[in-house]
Amino acid sequence: MLVMELLRDRGVVVLEPDGPLAAEDFDRLAALVDPYIEEAGSLRGLLIDTRSFPGWDGLDGLFAHGRFVRGHAARVRRVAIVTDSDLAGMLARVAGAVLPPEIRRFASGELEQAFAWILAAETPA
């Protein structure tokens, strides 16, 4: 399951994975962010707060994650991942090399620094 909150006044979505990610999680996330992106043009950032990488609930979850990233990456300025997971850190480095948003990993306990880094990005259009 993916707990999510859109901070409309900041243009930031806060995500907290609570177990393996399912295809439905990405459907709900798209339903949350798509109207905002349509209105504002982009998101300032995504803040992902997770102690460890939760993995996916089967191949459907993995493929839904990929579709969401492919369809939204160009409309997100920054992605901050707050985690101590080495796997999540590695995935962040790989994604940062091939995707448009700036992606940065922060250690657990650096949630405020991660949020400040996102807010330092240009405001959404």
Spell out the key features of this protein.
125 residues, alpha/beta, Transcription Regulator spoIIAA, 5-stranded mixed sheet, 4 helices, 5 strands, STAS_dom_sf, STAS/SEC14 domain-containing protein, SpoIIAA-like_sf, SpoIIAA-like
What does this structure look like?
Strand 2 (12-17), helix 1 (23-40) and strand 3 (43-49) form a beta-alpha-beta unit. Helix 1 (23-40) runs parallel beside helix 2 (58-72). Strands 1-2-3-4-5 form a five-stranded mixed β-sheet, sandwiched between helices. With 125 residues, it is an alpha/beta fold. It has a single domain, classed as Transcription Regulator spoIIAA. It is built from four helices and five strands. Helices cover 44% and strands 25% of the residues. This is STAS/SEC14 domain-containing protein. It comes from Roseomonas fluvialis. It holds the Pfam family SpoIIAA-like.
Summarize the structure.
Pfam families: SpoIIAA-like (PF11964). The protein has 125 residues and is of the alpha/beta class.
SS elements, strand count: 5
Mean pLDDT: 89
Low-confidence runs = none
CATH architecture: 2-Layer Sandwich
List the helices and strands and how they pair.
Layout: E1 2-7, E2 12-17, H1 23-40, E3 43-49, H2 58-72, E4 76-82, H3 86-98, E5 102-106, H4 111-119
Parallel strand pairs: 2-3, 3-4, 4-5
Antiparallel strand pairs: 1-2
Protein name: STAS/SEC14 domain-containing protein
